């Protein structure tokens, strides 16, 4: 009896230790001139310890992300409490609080997307402008063993956003840039209907603007010129806002 309990106890410790050792460390780094409010949406796997934080300029924050996990990170900008409700001019998740509590970001928003594999397997990640752009960001894998090249979208799309795609903030400045799909909701921009395959949904004059600014990011739904980045070996990741 005693021996069985000891073995069981050892197994529990071993499971805890090894599952703990398989988690990845994500460092969120705010290089922007003002605060951003990073948010996290888990699409599969266990929820993280937080779904949203405030990150002052030049600050960083470290999170444990378990493998297997997939989900997305984005940053909210120009946030404030309005009548007791937390609101952001870009990337808001409409939770009324800093945590997003399982809600996604309202586009346009720059996304950092991840699928982490268990057992030092192959992780996949990308930067997506398919839902538009709100701020530049980069993803740098650290300590991985295979592939593992960083991807970056460091251009400020807001400065070159065509007027018909611009989202203006409360002070009248451009705070985000819609994708053409968001702005016009037409099949050729959204890759829906008869445009619903990679072969029938070519780049458009609008997606080409995003592509020219951020060649490493997905500029529209079937942007096959952008390889999904990957990394094996149980890497950690650094996400920098305004790299
Ligand atoms: C893109 O093409 C559409 C359709 O031809 C045109 O109406 C629009 O002005 C173009 N926009 C830009 C930014 O080139």
List the keywords.
single chain, 243 residues, alpha+beta, Thaumatin, 14 strands, globular, binds 2-acetamido-2-deoxy-beta-D-glucopyranose
Structural class by helix and strand composition: alpha+beta
Order of helices and strands, N to C?
HEEEEEEEEEEEEHHHEE
The CATH class: Mainly Beta
Bound chemical compounds: 2-acetamido-2-deoxy-beta-D-glucopyranose
- DSSP summary: helix tally: 4
What's the structural domain tally?
A: 1
Q: How much is the average pLDDT? A: 92
CATH architectural group: Sandwich
Largest sheet: 7 strands, antiparallel
Low-confidence residue ranges: 6-21
The outline comes out as globular
Q: Name the beta content range.
A: 25-35%
Number of strands: 14
Calculate Rg over CA atoms.
20 Å
Pfam families: Thaumatin (PF00314)
Protein name: Thaumatin-like protein
InterPro entries: Osmotin/thaumatin-like_sf, Thaumatin, Thaumatin_CS
Signal peptide: 1-23
């Amino acid at each position: 009896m005693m021996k069985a309990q000891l073995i069981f106890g050892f197994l529990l410790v071993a499971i805890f230790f090894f599952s703990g050792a398989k988690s990845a460390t994500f460092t969120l780094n705010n290089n922007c001139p003002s605060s951003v409010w990073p948010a996290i949406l888990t699409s599969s796997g266990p929820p993280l310890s937080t779904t949203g934080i405030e990150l002052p300029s030049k600050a960083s924050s470290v999170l444990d992300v378990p493998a297997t996990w997939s989900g997305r990170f984005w940053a909210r900008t120009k946030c404030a409490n309005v009548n007791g409700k937390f609101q952001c001019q870009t990337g808001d998740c409409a939770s009324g609080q800093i945590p997003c509590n399982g809600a996604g970001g309202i586009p346009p928003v720059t996304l950092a997307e991840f699928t982490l594999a268990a057992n030092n397997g192959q992780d996949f990640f990308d930067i997506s402008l398919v839902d538009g752009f709100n701020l530049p960001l980069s993803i740098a894998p650290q300590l991985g063993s295979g592939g593992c090249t960083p991807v970056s979208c460091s251009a400020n799309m807001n400065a070159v956003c065509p007027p018909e795609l611009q989202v203006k903030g409360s002070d009248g400045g451009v705070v985000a840039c819609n994708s053409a799909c968001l702005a016009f909701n037409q099949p050729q921009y959204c890759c829906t209907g008869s445009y619903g395959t990679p072969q029938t949904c070519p780049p458009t004059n609008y997606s080409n603007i995003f592509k020219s600014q951020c060649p490493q990011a997905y500029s529209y739904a079937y942007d096959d010129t952008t390889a999904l980045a990957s990394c094996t070996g149980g890497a950690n990741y650094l996400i920098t806002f305004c790299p």
